[in-house]
Design goal:
The chain is of the alpha+beta class. It is 60% helix and 10% strand. Helix 3 packs parallel to helix 13, helix 6 runs antiparallel to helix 7 and helix 9 runs antiparallel to helix 10.
Amino acid sequence: MTSLLRLLALVVAVALPLVAVVGQVSQPSLNEVHARYAAPLTDQIEDMDAAPADDDLASVLAQAYGSNPGLAAQRYDLRATDDGLGIALSRTRATVQFQATTGYDYTDPGAITQAARPLADRLNNPDIERNDVATQLLVDQPLWTGGRAFAETRSARADIAAAREALRGAEGNLLVDLIAAYADVRRDGKVLSIRERNVTVLGQTLAEVVARRRAGELTRTDIAQAETQLMAAQVQLTAAQAQLEASRSTFARLVGRTPGRLAPEPPLPLIPASVDEALDVAAQANPELAAAILNERASRARIAQARAEANPTISLRGTAGTTGPVSPFDRRDQDITLGARATLTVPLINGGRIQAQIAQAKNRNSADLLRVEASRRDIVDSVLTTWNAWASAKRNVEMQSVQVQAARIYYDGTFKEYREGLRSTFDVLFAQNQLRETEIALISNRRDAYVAQAVLLRRIGKLDAASLLDGPTLYDPAAYTRRVERRGALPWDFGFRVLDIIDHPSDRPQRMEQLKPSNNTPVIASPTIEQVPTIVPARAATPLPNHSPRQKAGNHE
């Protein structure tokens, strides 16, 4: 019994000091230094969008759509392609020319010529002078070009359609760049705010560490840790400022002005619900694929155009002219001539030029046909890659949103425990860095997810001003084409054009050739020798051995 009482007294004696220590730890810190510093700044990232905005994505896209010089240059390139249609249509239209010639001849006659002249002429003027003027109006009307005009018109229209798809692709590229620049400015602005806030918090932390060092709680190592982290934060702040200005410069290059306070990015329309839907839409609307198909159609029409060079042509020429002396001028002395002539031109021997042109057109058409398949493969690859990039960024946003909340709790708790003396300076600095870097990563992934949506729309051919914007005036490429068709038109154009269509040459492409598969299993050629490269010291320049084809052939100068 006595032994049990002694053991109980020993336990009480040990437990009482521990209870006292626990009671002291649970009490707020009594150090007056802590009360001088603010609580940690852990505002929500969404608070950065609370300020009123004076600029939005719709106005940015509309302004760049109407004023970007690169897109405007692409539109004029399309107009130049439209003018090719006018050149093709002119093949069946009449041409009118006016010619006027005048001349003066002076002859000092010799004895024989002088003797042959009438006596009156010799007495009147011993010299011989002549002057004349001739005018002629020529009207040429092709009746049948052998199918040349029809084939050239078909290829010109296919070129126009392909150029319109190229313009649509350029417009989509510009919109992607604009959306990325818009998102970059917003991202970099938020990152700069986080870096500035980080410097402020680390400055407060350093001040508190110095104060606690004076109070005898911390060491100079803690001060050095806080100073190191603060200087690193200053470097990151400078880099964030430079990155923001670079993004603003890109924005200004695309839009033509610097950005204001940008509103949050609005949701983008026409996002496909699945990757299969994206591939189906891309097969119908992707501008690169459409341009490849139209380029193949244009090159196929050039096969018929090359074949037409071997066909006869029929043309009609009408002439009206006058001929007579210019001095003294009298209308009654002028001879008037009228004429009409039909011409049939039949190519007979051309030295193989037409056959070479036909073969050239076929080979180019075969290349364009293969480019269509290559474009289809590129589209599948780009759509899948962009879809996966969007899915990855979106998933990262979901996980990092939770990570930011956890990092904020981690930092708040670490800072409070640091003030209670339960955490080291390194712990609080590490928690502070983790919170800021996680916030920045979340902002970056939100930007990546949004831009990936824009890129996906571009890949499937649904990123254009007509789909994204309501209200702005859109460029109509067909308006200039209609002007080209009306330019120089004549009432009877259609009739002669029909004659050219009746018997036009074939545009059948050639049969595609493929390499025959080898019966042997392919293997990588074995190296001639196994080499282990070593570092070679620097040396002076020495002339290289001369192994020109001329010397190999034995031709010496």
